[in-house]
TrEMBL record:
Full protein name: 2-(1,2-epoxy-1,2-dihydrophenyl)acetyl-CoA isomerase
Gene3D superfamilies the record matches: 2-enoyl-CoA Hydratase, Chain A, domain 1, Lyase 2-enoyl-coa Hydratase, Chain A, domain 2
Top-rank taxon, per record: Bacteria
Organism lineage string: Bacteria, Pseudomonadati, Pseudomonadota, Alphaproteobacteria, Sphingomonadales
UniProt keyword terms in alphabetical order: Isomerase
Coiled-coil intervals, chain numbering: none
Pfam families, sorted: ECH_1 (PF00378)
Amino acid sequence: MVTQVRTSVEDRIGTVLLDGPDRMNAISVETTDQLLLTLEELGNSPDVGVIVITGSGRAFSAGGDVKVMHDMTSMTYENYLHIMQPTQRLPGLIRSLPRVVIAQLNGVAAGAGLAIAAACDMRIAGTSARFTTAFGKVGFSGDCGISWTLTRLVGTAKAREMMLLGEMLGAEEALKLGLINKLVADDALEADTRAIAARIANGPVVAYQYMKANLLAAETEPLQAVVNLEAMHQTRAFMTDDHREAIAAFAEKRAPCFAGR
């Protein structure tokens, strides 16, 4: 059965569930297509302030569906490159969405599953989470932006080690490497993730949108280009209702009540 993408929105938190527990939420072309449509919809919805991606059962995602790969071995170069297009789009979409995207890592994140998590803005893992690139084990070189994101998260030396050896990392080591942002007990994972998500969803989401854009630019652009971008975005944030509310709340010695505009 192909992994389905389920969505829900509650308290301004949009949840994206990879639902194929019998295959450890393996990702097919159809799954990727669903993810693209879902993320674009949630990321541009005025009712959503943050997005959480997680998996069903004991895995976040085991990566590409190996059973489907078996049926694709006779494809031509051109045909295979064509079906790779959704995968090529996914990491850039996650990083450029106007909403913060959090990976809630409830188990194994391997291959493309790890790549999706690495593209997210934050990664919160339970203690049973494990991580591996896994591409070499199926004779692949890696996709879904894994070379770019992994290098920036753990550094060039460790990224090379992880890609070339494909060894499984435990959650504690992933935290030490900076691969994940926060490690919590398995039974607290959902509650802790939702607490962080709620904090963001009820915050100045327009400002967060510009923060994401600034940080993305900072990974590739020279200093002055980023400084110029920050000035433009700061000016736009200055004009928001949320900024005015924050200033009023400070003067009145109360907590601000942000409206996301």
